[in-house]
C-alpha cells in the first residue's frame, strides 16, 4: 500500500495549486508577511494654505515643520511646544501628486494584490478633506485628488498586467447623512441597512454597485454621485460637506492559467468636518447636521481609543453607521491610511491640535491585513478532477498490490480499515471545506445569472418608461398650449374689466363734480338768504323806531294841550287874582306868555312836521317792507324749491354713488379674483412648464443614454453585468466586447 493517503495527496495538490496561482512577478506570501509586520495604520498630515477668512485675522501661525518631513511642532504662547510625529507631514506648498504618491498609491497597489484598503480624510471643517480626496475637478490633471488618481493607477496596472489575468472593477458610492445611509448612485435609496454574513463580511444591503471598464466610466459615476452629495454653506466654508462620503472600489482578478482568484476592496472615505457652533454659526437644520456629525466623529474617536488603550474588552463599532462600515478598516483585515487635514492659522490652533492628537492615537491601531484569495468553481473542478484521477490511480495500484499479495500467499489487510480511512477522509474538514466552497461558488454563479436576468428586465422597463415619458411629454405640451390659450382669454377679459372700471371711475368723477357744483350753489343761496334775513331784521327794527317816535309825538301833543289848558286856566286864575296888579306887569307877563306860547307853537309845528315826515317815511318803509317781505318770501320759496330739488338730486347722486361704489367694489373683487386666478394659473403654468422642461430634459437624457447604450458606452444596466477585463494590451478587446454584448441586449429587448 502507498505511503501517501488520498487525503494527504489532495492536500498536497491544493497546496501546489495555490502556489502556482500567485503572480510570477510578485511574491504574495512575502507581501503577506510584510503586511503583518507593517499592520499599523499609516498616518500622514497635510496643512493647507491660509484661506480668506484666516487672512482677515492675520496670517499668524504656530506651526513649525521639521526637515525630516515626518514631524510637526505646535508652538503655543503660554505652553510648551507640542511635537507630533507621523509617517509623513506635508506643508502648505505640497502638490496633489506628492500626497498621492505617499498616501494613496501604496494602498491601491496593495488592493490590486488582493488586500483590502482604506483611506480616510479627517479634519475640521474647511481644512481641505474633499480637496485632498477628490480635488476641485476630476478633469484637472494638476489639482485632481486621490480618488481620480487612483482610477488612473488601477487601469494602468491592468494594462501592465499579464495577459492571463482577467479583472473586474466594481464601484459603489454612498453617504452617511443624519445617521442614514444614502445611495449616491441611486438617490431614491435613502435609508440603506448594514448587514453581515460569513462570506461577504460587513456590507451595505441593496447598495448600487456598477461594473466599469475604463477610466471615463468611473469618472462619470464619481461626478454623478458628487452632485447628489449633501453640501451647504457655513461661516467656515461656502461648500461644506454635511455628510460622510464613502467611495467603494472592488477589484477582482482571476488567473486563466491556474484559475485562481482574489479580490481587494478599497474604501475611500471623505469624513464630514468637526465643527464648533461659535465658528460656523450653525442653526436650524445645519445645527442638527452638526450634532449628528460631531456625534459620529466622537464615536469614531471612542472606537480608536478602545482599540489602543489595551484595556477595553468591547469595541463600540455598532454605536454609529460610520464605525460599523469601517470595522475592518480599524483593527481588522485592511491596509489603512489616515490623512489628517489641518489649518496653519493661529485662529484654528485648538482644532489643529485636536486633529493631530487624533492621528497620534489612530497610529497605534494594529490591523491584520491578508490577501482575499478565492477558489473559483473552475479551480475547484480541476482540483476535484485531479483528486479523482489520483484516486483512480491509487485504486489501480491497490488492485495490483492485492493481486501480488495473493500471488505470494500473504494475507490482505482488513477491508473495514480501508473503509474507515475512506470515511475519515470524507468527514475531514478539508473535504467539507471543499464541498462548502463548491456550494458557495455554485450559489454565486446562480446569483449572477439571476442578476443578469434582472438587469435585462430593468433595461426593458427603462425603455418602456422612456416611451411613456415621451407620451407624457406630448400630453403636457398639449395641456401647456391649452393653458396658454386660457391665459390669453383671461387676459382679454381682464382688459375688458379694466376698461369698464375706467369708465365707471370717469362717470363717478363727473357725478362728484356735479354734486360739488350743486353744493356750492346751495351754499351761495344760503348766504343770500342770511343776508336778506338780516335786512328784514334791520327794517323791522327801523319800523319799531318809527312807531316809538309816533308815540312820543302823540305824547308831546297831549302834554302841550295839557300845558296850554293849564296856562289858560292859570291866566284866567291869575287875571282874576291879580286884577289889583298893575297893568304893566300884566302886559309883560302876557307878552312873556305869548312868546312862550309862540315858542311852544313853533315847537309843536316842528314836531308836527317831523311827525308828518315820519309818517311818510313809515308809509314808505311799510311799502318797502311789504315789497321786501314779498321778495324774501318768494325768494325763500324759490330757495326752498331749489333746496328740495338739490336734496333730491343729492340723494339721487348719493344713491348712484353708493351703487357705483358697490359696483366698483364688486368689479374690484371680480378683478382681484380673476387676478388671483390668473396668478394661480400662471403658477400652475410655470410649474407645468418646469415639469415639462424637466420631462423634456429627462427625455433628452434618457434618449442620449439610450443612444449611448446603442452606439457608444455601456449603460448602467450593463454595468451591473459582470464582464471581465483582460490584462495587458488585450484590455482593448475587453473594452470593445461590451459594445457587442450591449447591441445584443438592445436587440433582444
From TrEMBL:
CDD domains: KISc_KHC_KIF5. GO terms for cellular component: microtubule. Transmembrane segments: none annotated. Pfam families: Kinesin. Residues 370-397, 428-462, 487-698 form a coiled coil. Residues 1-14 have a biased composition (Polar residues). ATP binds at residues 123-130. Keywords: ATP-binding, Coiled coil, Microtubule, Motor protein, Nucleotide-binding. Residues 1-29 are annotated as: Disordered. Residues 17-29 have a biased composition (Basic and acidic residues). Residues 40-365 form the Kinesin motor domain. It comes from the Eukaryota. One of its GO terms (biological process) is microtubule-based movement. GO terms for molecular function: ATP binding; microtubule binding; microtubule motor activity. SMART domains: KISc. Belongs to the TRAFAC class myosin-kinesin ATPase superfamily. Kinesin family. This is Kinesin-like protein. It comes from Blepharisma stoltei.
